[in-house]
Write a structure and sequence with these properties.
The chain contains one helix and 14 strands, in the order βββββββββββαβββ. It has 184 residues and is an all-beta fold. The chain has a single domain, classed as Neuraminidase, CATH 2.120.10. The protein has a four-stranded antiparallel beta sheet, with no helix packed on it. A four-stranded antiparallel beta sheet has the order 8-9-10-11, with no helix packed on it. It is globular.
Length: 184
Protein backbone atom coordinates (compact mmCIF):
# COMPACT_ATOMS: atom_id res chain seq x y z
CA UNK A 1 0.00 0.00 0.00
CA UNK A 2 1.39 3.44 -0.96
CA UNK A 3 0.79 6.31 1.44
CA UNK A 4 1.64 9.96 0.89
CA UNK A 5 2.99 11.94 3.83
CA UNK A 6 2.39 15.49 2.67
CA UNK A 7 3.79 17.08 5.84
CA UNK A 8 7.15 15.31 5.57
CA UNK A 9 7.17 15.12 1.73
CA UNK A 10 7.51 11.33 1.62
CA UNK A 11 5.94 8.33 -0.05
CA UNK A 12 5.70 5.38 2.31
CA UNK A 13 5.08 1.67 1.67
CA UNK A 14 2.85 -0.23 4.13
CA UNK A 15 1.77 -3.86 4.17
CA UNK A 16 -1.93 -4.75 4.23
CA UNK A 17 -1.82 -5.01 8.04
CA UNK A 18 -0.80 -1.34 8.30
CA UNK A 19 2.85 -1.92 9.14
CA UNK A 20 5.35 0.54 7.69
CA UNK A 21 7.73 -1.38 5.46
CA UNK A 22 9.89 1.47 4.19
CA UNK A 23 10.13 4.99 2.88
CA UNK A 24 10.03 4.70 -0.90
CA UNK A 25 11.09 8.26 -1.60
CA UNK A 26 11.60 11.56 0.20
CA UNK A 27 10.40 14.11 -2.32
CA UNK A 28 12.44 16.89 -0.72
CA UNK A 29 10.24 19.87 -1.64
CA UNK A 30 6.59 20.71 -1.96
CA UNK A 31 3.60 18.55 -1.13
CA UNK A 32 2.97 15.18 -2.77
CA UNK A 33 -0.75 14.77 -3.35
CA UNK A 34 -1.73 12.06 -5.86
CA UNK A 35 -0.17 8.66 -6.46
CA UNK A 36 -0.79 5.88 -8.98
CA UNK A 37 0.96 2.61 -9.80
CA UNK A 38 1.75 1.23 -13.25
CA UNK A 39 1.88 -2.44 -12.22
CA UNK A 40 2.96 -3.95 -15.58
CA UNK A 41 5.95 -1.61 -15.85
CA UNK A 42 6.61 -1.47 -12.07
CA UNK A 43 6.48 2.34 -11.92
CA UNK A 44 4.92 4.67 -9.39
CA UNK A 45 3.82 8.15 -10.47
CA UNK A 46 3.02 10.99 -8.10
CA UNK A 47 2.05 14.63 -8.23
CA UNK A 48 3.76 17.32 -6.19
CA UNK A 49 1.84 20.57 -5.64
CA UNK A 50 5.07 22.54 -5.35
CA UNK A 51 5.96 25.12 -2.74
CA UNK A 52 3.98 28.18 -3.91
CA UNK A 53 0.41 27.24 -4.76
CA UNK A 54 -0.22 30.50 -6.63
CA UNK A 55 2.74 29.88 -8.98
CA UNK A 56 3.34 27.15 -11.56
CA UNK A 57 5.95 25.19 -9.61
CA UNK A 58 4.15 21.86 -9.26
CA UNK A 59 5.42 18.77 -11.07
CA UNK A 60 4.92 15.02 -11.61
CA UNK A 61 7.57 12.37 -11.01
CA UNK A 62 8.00 8.63 -11.48
CA UNK A 63 10.08 6.03 -9.66
CA UNK A 64 10.56 2.27 -10.04
CA UNK A 65 8.98 -0.03 -7.44
CA UNK A 66 12.41 -0.64 -5.89
CA UNK A 67 13.02 3.12 -5.42
CA UNK A 68 15.45 3.51 -8.31
CA UNK A 69 15.29 5.59 -11.49
CA UNK A 70 13.54 8.65 -10.11
CA UNK A 71 12.48 10.68 -13.15
CA UNK A 72 10.82 14.08 -13.63
CA UNK A 73 7.87 13.45 -15.97
CA UNK A 74 6.07 16.82 -15.95
CA UNK A 75 8.51 19.62 -15.09
CA UNK A 76 7.99 22.68 -12.92
CA UNK A 77 6.31 25.38 -14.94
CA UNK A 78 4.11 23.01 -16.94
CA UNK A 79 1.46 22.76 -14.20
CA UNK A 80 0.59 24.88 -11.16
CA UNK A 81 -0.65 22.60 -8.35
CA UNK A 82 -1.21 19.07 -9.66
CA UNK A 83 -3.53 17.13 -7.36
CA UNK A 84 -4.99 13.69 -8.10
CA UNK A 85 -3.88 11.68 -11.12
CA UNK A 86 -5.07 8.68 -13.12
CA UNK A 87 -3.15 6.42 -15.47
CA UNK A 88 -4.54 5.08 -18.74
CA UNK A 89 -2.15 2.15 -19.13
CA UNK A 90 -3.56 0.95 -22.45
CA UNK A 91 -3.05 4.32 -24.15
CA UNK A 92 0.03 5.24 -22.02
CA UNK A 93 -1.48 8.53 -20.75
CA UNK A 94 -1.47 10.40 -17.44
CA UNK A 95 -4.48 12.57 -16.50
CA UNK A 96 -4.39 15.02 -13.60
CA UNK A 97 -6.20 17.98 -12.07
CA UNK A 98 -4.32 21.26 -11.62
CA UNK A 99 -6.05 23.00 -8.68
CA UNK A 100 -4.84 26.61 -8.80
CA UNK A 101 -4.16 26.25 -12.50
CA UNK A 102 -7.92 25.59 -12.77
CA UNK A 103 -7.34 22.90 -15.39
CA UNK A 104 -7.68 19.24 -16.23
CA UNK A 105 -4.56 18.05 -18.06
CA UNK A 106 -3.10 15.04 -19.83
CA UNK A 107 0.28 13.90 -21.14
CA UNK A 108 1.95 10.79 -22.45
CA UNK A 109 3.41 8.71 -19.64
CA UNK A 110 6.89 9.86 -20.64
CA UNK A 111 5.83 13.50 -20.12
CA UNK A 112 5.56 14.43 -23.78
CA UNK A 113 2.50 15.99 -25.44
CA UNK A 114 1.22 17.91 -22.40
CA UNK A 115 -2.36 18.89 -23.21
CA UNK A 116 -4.89 21.03 -21.35
CA UNK A 117 -8.31 19.40 -21.68
CA UNK A 118 -10.43 21.73 -19.50
CA UNK A 119 -9.93 25.33 -18.38
CA UNK A 120 -12.24 26.39 -15.54
CA UNK A 121 -10.78 29.88 -15.02
CA UNK A 122 -7.98 32.30 -15.82
CA UNK A 123 -5.80 34.59 -13.71
CA UNK A 124 -5.38 35.50 -10.05
CA UNK A 125 -8.98 36.67 -9.52
CA UNK A 126 -10.38 33.34 -10.70
CA UNK A 127 -7.82 31.50 -8.52
CA UNK A 128 -9.55 33.00 -5.48
CA UNK A 129 -12.82 31.31 -6.48
CA UNK A 130 -12.50 27.75 -5.14
CA UNK A 131 -15.43 26.66 -7.35
CA UNK A 132 -12.95 26.83 -10.25
CA UNK A 133 -10.36 24.57 -8.53
CA UNK A 134 -10.09 21.17 -10.26
CA UNK A 135 -9.10 18.52 -7.72
CA UNK A 136 -10.10 14.86 -8.11
CA UNK A 137 -10.12 12.89 -11.37
CA UNK A 138 -11.32 9.53 -12.65
CA UNK A 139 -11.26 8.21 -16.20
CA UNK A 140 -13.26 5.59 -18.06
CA UNK A 141 -11.18 4.69 -21.12
CA UNK A 142 -13.83 2.26 -22.44
CA UNK A 143 -16.56 4.92 -22.52
CA UNK A 144 -13.95 7.60 -23.37
CA UNK A 145 -15.10 9.80 -20.47
CA UNK A 146 -13.34 11.65 -17.66
CA UNK A 147 -14.87 12.84 -14.42
CA UNK A 148 -13.39 15.52 -12.18
CA UNK A 149 -14.35 17.50 -9.12
CA UNK A 150 -14.35 21.25 -8.71
CA UNK A 151 -14.02 22.05 -5.08
CA UNK A 152 -16.13 25.00 -3.86
CA UNK A 153 -15.74 26.85 -0.57
CA UNK A 154 -15.85 24.79 2.67
CA UNK A 155 -19.39 23.85 3.75
CA UNK A 156 -20.90 25.89 0.90
CA UNK A 157 -22.50 23.06 -1.07
CA UNK A 158 -20.93 24.49 -4.24
CA UNK A 159 -18.53 21.65 -5.04
CA UNK A 160 -19.46 19.58 -8.07
CA UNK A 161 -18.59 16.61 -10.23
CA UNK A 162 -18.27 17.17 -13.97
CA UNK A 163 -17.90 14.90 -16.98
CA UNK A 164 -16.52 15.31 -20.50
CA UNK A 165 -14.92 13.24 -23.23
CA UNK A 166 -11.29 12.20 -22.87
CA UNK A 167 -10.27 14.31 -25.85
CA UNK A 168 -11.13 17.78 -27.03
CA UNK A 169 -14.10 17.89 -29.38
CA UNK A 170 -13.12 18.74 -32.96
CA UNK A 171 -12.63 22.49 -33.44
CA UNK A 172 -13.00 23.32 -29.74
CA UNK A 173 -10.55 24.52 -27.12
CA UNK A 174 -10.19 23.60 -23.46
CA UNK A 175 -11.77 26.86 -22.26
CA UNK A 176 -14.92 26.62 -24.37
CA UNK A 177 -15.63 22.93 -24.98
CA UNK A 178 -19.36 22.19 -25.13
CA UNK A 179 -19.35 18.56 -23.96
CA UNK A 180 -18.93 19.29 -20.23
CA UNK A 181 -21.92 18.17 -18.19
CA UNK A 182 -23.03 16.98 -14.76
CA UNK A 183 -23.38 13.18 -14.61
CA UNK A 184 -26.47 11.66 -13.13
Amino acid sequence: MLVLDGLKSKILVFDTEGNLLRTLVETGVGTPDGVAADLPNRHIYWTNMGEHWDQPDGFIERIDFDGSNRTMIIPKGATTTPKQLELDLKNRLIYWCDREGMRVMRANMDGSAITTLVVAGHGSEDQKDERKHCVGIAIDPQLRQMYWTQKGAPNSGTGRILRAGLGLPEGQEAANRTDINFPG
